[in-house]
Amino acid sequence: MNEIQNSSSSSSTILDDKPSKINISKNLVLVDNNIEENDDFGEIIQYKENKEVENSSIELGEKKAVVLSILIPFSIIGALIRIGLNILHSYPGSPVFSLIYPQFVGCVIMGFCLARKGFIMESYLPLYIGLTTGLCGSITTFSSWILSIFKEFILPSTPHRGDLYNILAALADIGITLGMSVTGLKFGEHIADIIIQKRKIQSERLYHIAEKPSKLNELIIPDFICFGVGIASIVLVVTLSSTMQVNRSVLFAAVFAPIGTLIRWYLSKYNAIKKSFPWGTFAANISGSIIIGILFFLSNGVASSKTSCEIIKGLSDGFCGCLTTISTFATEIKTLPRKHAYIYAFISILTGQIAMILTIGIYHWVVGLSTTCSA
């Protein structure tokens, strides 16, 4: 993916051991091994004055077909990890809401990848994209988080509590999630320091990222493995979802997960519109929040069959869960200038809640929701 800059345009990256510096010119970007950036969507957030760079160039080709193939299995795995962690930690008396666990785990992996970005990219570029965009972006989810905040704000709770406590509960949801996500990014860096010690780079390396056609005679063995695993993953989950009669909502989630991830990857190019506000991330997160609000309304306000309920659940966990991401959102908040970070976070959360009001709240206040699909 376009982790350095959108894949439709070439970019170059220099990795060294100096403090993080980024210099944007038409074709050059300076970063170091520990740079923290919007790795799900590729737009670098911190900006400094342009500099001329004179170094030998190492070209890394981004083959779209290979990237698409590797995103499929990673998104399926990420969605299943998120669903599994949610189920594992959903028990009576749980000290914290279950969604915090996949958010934290995804951000830890993202922090690890960011800390050793150059090492992973140089080893195999599609692997870096698969880990950050595919795996981390699918383990974490923005839409389900926005929905959980809205439930704390508006929907009746058990046991019943007053409006003031609802507000406090929602604010706690926001604060705990953001705090644990940013902590996860830092913890991932610490793990990277232990597992893959920072290499001593004697000379700066210039990475030139350019889109390359996936010509058969230029493919390497890992590329063929990506194609094979991607095709096998789709065939497997589609076959299982159409034949098995148990846990079908999980299987449907695995089917819909790659679609959400690929759309999020495509929306990455819109992050370049404005340096201080990642529109690509915002568009993916808010559109996913709107869709999950509609799906929640359908599962709580419209009579549904068992199959339709399973499909709705699969769309919520798979498509919306992978279309939206907290790992990128937390990284952007961490790397944007402080003023822009607060504005971006506030607008994203506020817009998400407005989406919930329009898709769920109005009907709930006027007519009332009635659960038609079991959880």
Automatic annotation (TrEMBL):
Catalytic activity: fluoride(in) = fluoride(out)
A Pfam entry, by short name: CRCB
GO cellular component: plasma membrane
Keyword DNA-binding: no
Keyword Cell membrane found: yes
Name this protein carries in UniProt: CrcB-like protein-domain-containing protein
Family from the record: Belongs to the fluoride channel Fluc/FEX (TC 1.A.43) family.
Domain of life: Eukaryota
Swiss-Prot/TrEMBL keywords: Cell membrane, Membrane, Transmembrane, Transmembrane helix
InterPro entries from the UniProt entry: FluC
Function noted in UniProt: Fluoride channel required for the rapid expulsion of cytoplasmic fluoride.
Compartments reported by the entry: Cell membrane
Organism: Rhizophagus irregularis (strain DAOM 181602 / DAOM 197198 / MUCL 43194) (Arbuscular mycorrhizal fungus)
Bilayer topology term: Multi-pass membrane protein
Primary location group: membrane
GO molecular function terms listed in the Swiss-Prot or TrEMBL record: fluoride transmembrane transporter activity
